[in-house]
Amino acid sequence: MTDTSLSRLxxxxxxxxVGASATPGKIGAMPITLLLQHGYGGRIIPVNPRADAIAGLxxxxxxxxxxxxxxxxxxxxxxxxxxxxxxxxxxxxVGAAVxxxxxxxxxxxxxxxxxxxxxxxxxxxxxxLLGPNCLGxxxxxxxxxxxxxxxxxxxxxxxxxxxxxxxxxxxGAYAYSMARERGLGLSHWISxxxxxxxxxxxxxxxxxxDADTRxxxxxxxxCRDGAKLRRALAAARAAGKxxxxxxxxxxxxxxxxxxxHTAALAGxxxxxxxxxxxxxxxRARTIEEFFNLGYALDTWKQPPQGRRLGIFTISGGVxxxxxxxxxxxxxxxxxxxxxxxxxxxxxxxxxxxxxPVDVTGQAVSEPGLLLATADDMLADGRYDALAVFLAAxxxxxxxxxxxxxxxxxxxxxxxxxPLAISALFPPARRRELERLGCxxxxxxxxxxxxxxxxxxxxxxxxxxxxxxxxxxxxxxPALLDAYNEVQAxxxxxxxxxxxSPCALATDADAAVRAVADMRxxxxxxxxxxxxxxxxxxxxxxxxxSDVGGVKLNLRGEDAVRRAYADIMASVRxxxxxxxxxxxxxxxxxxxxxxxxxxxxxxxxxxxxVMFGLGGVFVEVLKDVSFRLAPFDxxxxxxxxxxxxxxxxxxxxxxxPPCDVDALAEALAALSRFAHARRKDFSxxxxxxxxxxxxxxxxxxxxxxxxxxxxxx
Length: 712
Fold this sequence. Notes:
It is built from 24 helices and 29 strands. By secondary structure, the chain is of the alpha/beta class. The longest helix has 18 residues.
């Protein structure tokens, strides 16, 4: 259901401008000028105690003098007077307020206190606040210009399907102007400023339910409420409305001091990347990409349903360039069917029938060749999108009927295969092709990068496990102040994670008994079974092997006793200050691929799960992926496939493929545990998490659990 309070804000039937002015250039004059100039159909009420009329409209001395309720009040008065002006409204009289004025929380403690007073007054009166310190908003379809930005004064954007929201007013004004220059149509343009009440997440969620909006473009500098942003992105995804985000501030704040791999790698940027990927939002790294993605998603009736691209060109060299770009963006280039290639070579013997398909300049002298080649390529459904390079031929008026007919026929015959044409078309011709649902780029590389960014978005998993109230773990034991490895493994076992059997021994006799007690199918220990490992257990020792704290491949009672004595002697000599809980006894692991899985509690978004391959892959290459907890098996599979080392899990050089399904189940279980116990543990790390051959599952061999106040 659409938030009615925000509907009153963004689609107001009446607007009061507090601080209205007849002086051009003042912030209280601009909204009246724009509203009148562009034909706003609702009531406009200037509020100024020193004027009887402004711009030919009767003026009121204050909000308390209004003769009826009003959906929107624009506050264009100094910060010191904003709260007093809003205080004059009766409870329920004003639906929402836009506060242009700066001088609030962005200026320090005094400004923050002034902002809180403004918010308290608004809450008492049931008023939603946009701002303060913002440029306001525009509802382009309804001619609502609640802004003092000069951008629309220099020319307005066309009404369209893109809803644009920005935390930065300056970027927002620039983006509005860029949209106008690019010919993008907007439904709404919103700047949120200090976000004292309404933030970017509120706007995304409202736009997701707005009938006039098809695509959402957002510029973000930060987020204070991770759960709300997740709900907003989930709402957009459920509504089938793609979200393009530019998020600045790629920092590692706080991660440098972290003790685990997970926390060290899960910086702010990695968490936002995981968030956007998990909820299907497309992240733009540059302003050009931001607009190209918004343009593509708004122009195409639907994005490509997969990553198979057909390229057809009149230049072999540019075709090779486009193929290189396709490889860089992860697009596949299947060859056309053999009979299709044969027919092309019959028509143009010197052409190239592979992908890219090069029809040479013959395409511009033989009008039917364009459509015939495209039809042949697309006949058997082997392409999800088609990119066509026509070079400077697009500027030829004589060839325009051919290109227009081609675009029309492609839309009619292959409506499910999005088309992008790269050529130098005059602006008017470019717009005609765009109205036919065709992307047009001057730069063929930009065309391929854009296709690559949006390809497959529609086919991504739609199952997102929503974060809800914490779920209790059945028979969860009382929390300990600290967890050693054995206790950590026991905790994970209770959370349904597959763990290696292990025991804590405080003397050699206990170690021998522990070996005798271990009887796990496929992982027998001691005697003639699988040999065992002994590792020192100490909260003060991270790298056990450096102090002689690990003994491997032990068989028989004598070997276990000697290993226990050697470990204790070595550790006491090299680390006499270390606290020693005892020695962990466990079976030696079978052969498999060592992975790492961890949880870091982000202060905004809560628990974030990391996955990667172990050893050098995580420590040096940082080849890892992230997801916000909780998530399901499908998301876990996507997470696993994202790492560059995924091929090692599929089996290389004769090694069998790993049990990726079991690995995904383990990651999903870890995510559920992390979410359910997010207030209890700040960090969990399983290293290594051993992926066994297909059908044999996975097993956690070691774990570190750190208590702490997690993000809720």
